[in-house]
Amino acid sequence: MTSDDTHARTVDLLEPNSYFGMKASQVKLLKQEKVACLDDNDARLTLDPPNKYKIQ
């Protein structure tokens, strides 16, 4: 799975490396939507330090 932040870099890694021995048809990249980050094992949401009401 990739995101908007990592999709292009992932493709740029896979293509010049010939998909690391796999056929391109064997590799499926799924781009996921952005979601809030969890800060710890208690599933607390990561907050933006300058604004404690903004979720990262």
From TrEMBL:
GO terms for biological process: UDP-N-acetylglucosamine biosynthetic process. GO terms for molecular function: UDP-N-acetylglucosamine diphosphorylase activity. InterPro entries: Nucleotide-diphossugar_trans (IPR029044), UDP-sugar_pyrophosphorylase (IPR039741). This is Uncharacterized protein. It comes from Gossypium harknessii. The lineage of its organism: Eukaryota, Viridiplantae, Streptophyta, Embryophyta, Tracheophyta.
